[in-house]
Structure formats: structure tokens, C-alpha cells
Amino acid sequence: MDEEKSDFWQSHSLKYLEMALRTDKQEIIRHPDGYGKKTGDCGDTVEIFLMASGNIIESASYQINGCINTAACANTIVFMIENKTIDKAWEITPEAVAEYLETLPGSHFHCAELAVGALYLALSNLLEMRRTQWKKAYNAR
Q1: End-to-end Cα separation, the chain, in angstroms
Q2: N or C end of the chain, less CB within 10 A?
Q3: Pick the CATH number of 2-138 from 3.30.565.10, 3.40.50.720, 3.40.50.1000, 3.90.1010.10
Q4: Dmax over Cα atoms in the chain, in whole Å?
Q5: pLDDT tens across 8-29, in order?
């Protein structure tokens, strides 16, 4: 068992470990400016919550029901989009998430696809909420 623990810690980059274990951005925001939820074929679920001012995503958070790789990917997305423009957030790809993490196992690339899919749904929702402001009060999980 000690060998397994050692292998986990030794086989991942510091970026991966930080994003996989960090929980300060794991939060449900009631009535967010943008919200997206996606469940993958593996059964993992990612929810992304966005708060924006003008064209800037001021804060973002996530909620997951999934594995450590999904947590790493969701955390990475939040890290990559905060204080960036909405247009920059649309440019994030699963490949960019995996590249940032450095050691996301290839067999779990679908976790990056899942998290990016939830982001795209949240960005679409953000734009829809701006067109129909009255809906924001109903934009909750």
C-alpha cells in the first residue's frame, strides 16, 4: 500500500496535485450569471458557476461528483478563466486543460472534455441570461 501512495505522489506534476486536491473554489453559487452542468458517460458530473461583470469573468466555482481527475480538470478551468474575458474562456479546450495539468492520465482525458463541456454550457447560459435578464432569478441548480 505504501508503494501505491508513493507512486501516486511521484507520478504527478505539482500542478496536477494542486488542482486535484485544492477545494477553495468548490462552491455552489446561488443565482449565478452563468451555470452549466454536464454528466459524462463515466457517471462523473461537473457543474460550473460564473459571475461576470461586463466582459470579465470575475469569479467562478465548481461542484463535482466524480474522481480526482475530474476535480483536477474542473479546478484548472476555474483557475484559467477567472479575471479573463468571456471570449478567452471560450478558447479553453480539453487539450489546454490536459497540457496545464502535465500529468493527466491519458485514460482520463474524458475528464477534461467533461469539464470543458460544462464550461461551454455555463458560458452559453451566461450569454442567454444577458439577453433575458428576468431569467437570472430562476438560474439555480
Answers
A1: 39
A2: N
A3: 3.90.1010.10
A4: 56
A5: 778 899 999 999 999 999 999 9
Domain limits of the chain?
A: 2-138
List pLDDT tens digits, range 62-101.
999 999 999 999 999 999 999 999 999 999 999 999 999 9
CA torsion angle for 61, 134, 124, 117 (degrees, to 10)?
40
CA distance 96 to 105: 14
Nearest of 51, 57, 67 to residue 110 by alpha carbon: 67
83: left (phi over 0), alpha (psi -120 to 50) or beta: left
C-alpha cell at 124: 452559453
Going by C-alpha positions, the residue among 17, 53, 19, 6 that lies closest to residue 34 is: 53
DSSP H or E stretch at residue 36: strand 34-39
Order the strands of the 34-39 sheet from edge to edge.
Answer: 34-39, 45-53, 56-65, 84-85
